[in-house]
């Protein structure tokens, strides 16, 4: 009986330590500074900083990378997606994949925005699309969306919110570096 109790206490303490370390790593890797720490992400950090939800705008919601690029439909889905994306980014960093702007430009041509920006992320912050203080023009613009009469998503219409015209920025940077498209 005594061994079982000691085993339970030790197991409980170890589980607590693992939970605390895991939680601290989740918090640490949700910081914009963490996402921007790899050279591959420099252009994304710069364009985010200048976009509507970045650093340079007052009076709007400032979003972290994880606010848009991870689902907000439950903790399990969030953690699984975060782990997959993190491992994919780590692999790309370690193998030098997507190291050049040309590689990113090619990737962005093939990506569907809803695959990299989650609707649930938009709705987490923008819960009220109708109500007091919301302009009638905005309510009417979102009518079909709210009534589920359209397949359009937030980023279908608001595709410049997160990073501005990132494709144009990358093309300009390639030209500035003397590269060809």
From TrEMBL:
It comes from the Bacteria. The keyword Glycoprotein does not apply. Its cofactor is heme. GO terms for cellular component: plasma membrane. It is a single-pass membrane protein. GO terms for molecular function: electron transfer activity; heme binding; metal ion binding. InterPro entries: Cytochrome_c-type_ET, Multihaem_cyt_sf, NapC/NirT/NrfH, NapC/NirT_cyt_c_N, NapC/NirT_cytc_sf. Heme 4 binds at residues 154, 157-158. A menaquinol binds at residues 82, 89. Heme 2 binds at residues 65, 68-69, 163. Heme 3 binds at residues 122, 125-126. It is found in: Cell membrane. Gene3D superfamilies: Di-heme elbow motif domain. One of its GO terms (biological process) is denitrification pathway. Its main location: membrane. Binds 4 heme groups per subunit. Binds 4 heme groups per subunit. Belongs to the NapC/NirT/NrfH family. This is Cytochrome c-type protein. It comes from Thermosulfidibacter takaii (strain DSM 17441 / JCM 13301 / NBRC 103674 / ABI70S6).
């Amino acid at each position: 009986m005594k061994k079982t109790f000691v085993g339970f206490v030790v197991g409980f303490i170890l589980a607590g330590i693992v939970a605390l370390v895991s939680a601290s790593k989740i918090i640490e890797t949700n910081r914009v500074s963490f996402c921007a720490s790899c050279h591959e992400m420099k252009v994304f950090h710069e364009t985010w900083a200048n976009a509507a939800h970045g650093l340079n705008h007052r009076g709007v919601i400032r979003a972290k990378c994880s606010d848009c690029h991870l689902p907000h439909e439950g903790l399990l889905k969030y953690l699984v997606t975060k782990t997959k994306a993190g491992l994919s980014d780590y692999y790309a960093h370690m193998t030098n994949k997507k190291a050049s702007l040309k590689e990113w430009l090619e990737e962005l041509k093939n990506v569907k925005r809803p695959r990299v920006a989650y609707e649930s992320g938009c709705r987490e912050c923008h819960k009220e699309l109708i109500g007091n203080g919301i302009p009638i023009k905005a309510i009417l613009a979102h009518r079909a969306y709210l009534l589920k009469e359209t397949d359009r998503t937030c980023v279908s219409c608001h595709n410049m919110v997160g990073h501005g015209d990132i494709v144009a920025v990358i093309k300009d940077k390639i030209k500035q570096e003397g590269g060809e498209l």
